[in-house]
Automatic annotation (TrEMBL):
Keyword Hydrolase: yes
Annotated protein name in UniProt: Metallo-beta-lactamase family protein
Entry keyword set: Hydrolase
Taxon lineage: Bacteria, Pseudomonadati, Bacteroidota, Cytophagia, Cytophagales
SUPFAM superfamilies referenced in this protein's UniProt entry, alphabetically: Metallo-hydrolase/oxidoreductase
Pfam families in alphabetical order: Beta-Casp, Lactamase_B, RMMBL
């Protein structure tokens, strides 16, 4: 049996791992790579003569840990390049992946239209060139027709010699650790792909489940060398920020937030805050149609959320809606918020302030000393969010160089990734004498290196940090 690391290898995004038995090929995750820019992706695809470094038609099955686009975003392209098999995931992952892939297809279509308009004017062959990894809604629908939802804890056979079980990973609704049992040459081997590991006591989500003893563990390491700083409850942390930025002074609070997962945790926490009627009334604008659609998925799957959320639902009927919440659907409504002069809260995507409607809100308020931009999660190096967190005096937004007069704050109680202690807790379930190998993925190089040392200090001997394209015999 062979395992090849084709993504999230010494980087955070693009999760994609190929597991091959004698006669069966399984792809675990098929994510978009955001660590490469457009030129880098184009160069790689031209060298491969494909979006993929393997023949997509030879893949038998895809296993999807969760919906986030760095894990799911290349699935439509897999079908474009000849894949004809199933994508196996949980029911909420199917629902959220559908929203995310259709949103990506819509973005691709807009970019294609812009390219075509440019080429019509300039008659440039280069302008007419369509990127190899672009897909449209037709490709998404073709892919979704082949998704197979499987329940947590259900043993599911994907081949004569391979069964799988999904265990709840926290992190996102429907997110899973995947444990495979492979029978080969009269032996049974267990391999676990962690997906993204959540944290305990996170708003809405159940805690990550323990997995059984395995032979090989592929483990994410996003926070492999970091601990979460904020130890208080999300309600306390967020209420403190709101009081200081919108009540003690008549200010405006802008919260960049990922539409799927993070925004739902925020809205639920705000709902709890405003259930305390002593808290002053402030309008809350949720500015992301994708977030609105995702919130409906969370509401439909309320029985898969944690006990606190289920109890809140039973007592109050709605997890997310409250009187002062306004969903902004159209781009005109989004722009009009700039004319609202009362203290307010604006939640908008994306969480790293890289694309999305949040850029216009940051642009409109970056020079306002009464505005606060609250970062609530991880921001990759080089993104606008990363530059804000690193205290730059001026910032470039949409080609404009603007002074940073707004207040920049951060809290990490809403980070959906487990920190070093959470990751170690996940690994230490495994007996060091029985675990044959750990492979670290989905992290920056320094984070992986530091986490590798930490794991080895705990008695685990074989801890690898694979390069992209490296194959291991299991």
């Amino acid at each position: 049996m062979k395992l090849t690391f084709w993504g999230a290898a010494q980087q955070v995004t693009g999760s994609m791992f190929l597991l091959e038995t004698d006669d069966y090929r399984i792809l675990i995750d098929c994510g978009s790579d955001f660590d490469l820019d457009e030129i880098g992706r184009k160069t790689r695809y031209e060298e491969q003569k494909s979006v993929f470094p393997f023949d997509a038609s030879l893949i038998n099955t895809v296993l999807l840990t969760h919906a986030h686009i760095d894990h799911s975003g290349n699935i439509p392209n897999l079908y474009k390049y000849g894949f004809e098999g199933r994508v196996v995931c949980t029911e909420p992952t199917l629902a959220l992946t559908s929203l995310l892939l259709k949103d990506a297809a819509n973005l691709h279509q807009k970019r294609l239209n812009a390219r075509m308009n440019g080429s019509a004017k300039k008659r440039s062959k280069k302008k007419r060139e369509v990127p190899m990894d672009y897909f449209v809604e037709k490709n998404v629908n073709e892919a979704l027709d082949n998704f197979v939802p499987v329940a947590f804890g259900q043993r599911y056979r994907i081949a004569d010699n391979v069964t799988i079980v999904f265990y709840a990973a926290g992190h996102l609704l429907g997110a899973a650790h995947i444990v495979l049992e492979v029978y080969e040459d009269g032996q049974k081997k267990r391999i676990c792909f962690s997906g993204d590991i959540g944290r305990s006591n996170y708003p809405l989500l159940i805690d990550p489940q323990e997995i059984p003893q395995v032979d090989y563990l592929i483990c994410e390491s996003t926070y492999g060398n970091r601990l979460h700083e904020d130890q208080g409850s999300p309600v306390e942390a967020l209420a403190d920020v709101i009081k200081r930025t919108c009540i003690d002074i008549p200010g405006r609070l802008i919260i960049p937030s990922f539409s799927v997962g993070r925004t739902q945790a925020l809205l639920y926490t705000l709902n709890k805050i405003y259930m305390d009627h002593s808290f002053p009334y402030l309008k809350v604008f949720s500015d992301s149609p994708l977030a609105h659609s995702s919130t409906k998925v969370y509401q439909r799957h309320v029985r898969m959320l944690n006990k606190e959320a289920r109890t809140f639902q039973d007592d109050n009927d709605m997890l997310f809606d409250f009187d002062n919440l306004i969903y902004l659907e159209s781009s005109d409504a989004s722009k009009a918020v700039s004319n609202y002069n009362e203290p307010c809260i604006i939640i908008s995507s994306s969480g790293m302030v890289q694309g999305g409607r949040v850029e216009q809100h940051v642009e409109a308020n970056i020079g306002n000393p009464y505005a606060t931009i609250l970062m609530i999660g991880y921001a990759s190096e080089g993104t606008l969010g990363w530059r804000l967190l690193n205290g730059q005096d001026t910032i470039s937004i949409r080609g404009k160089q603007l002074p940073v007069l707004a207040n920049i704050e951060k809290i990490d109680v809403f980070s959906g990734h487990g920190d070093q202690n959470d990751l170690l807790k996940f690994i230490k379930i495994q007996d060091p004498e029985k675990l044959k190998g750990i492979f670290l993925v989905h992290g920056e190089q320094q984070s992986m290196a530091d986490f590798q040392s930490k794991i080895q200090e705990n008695g685990y001997k074989s801890v690898e940090i694979p390069l992209r394209g490296r194959t291991y015999e299991l």
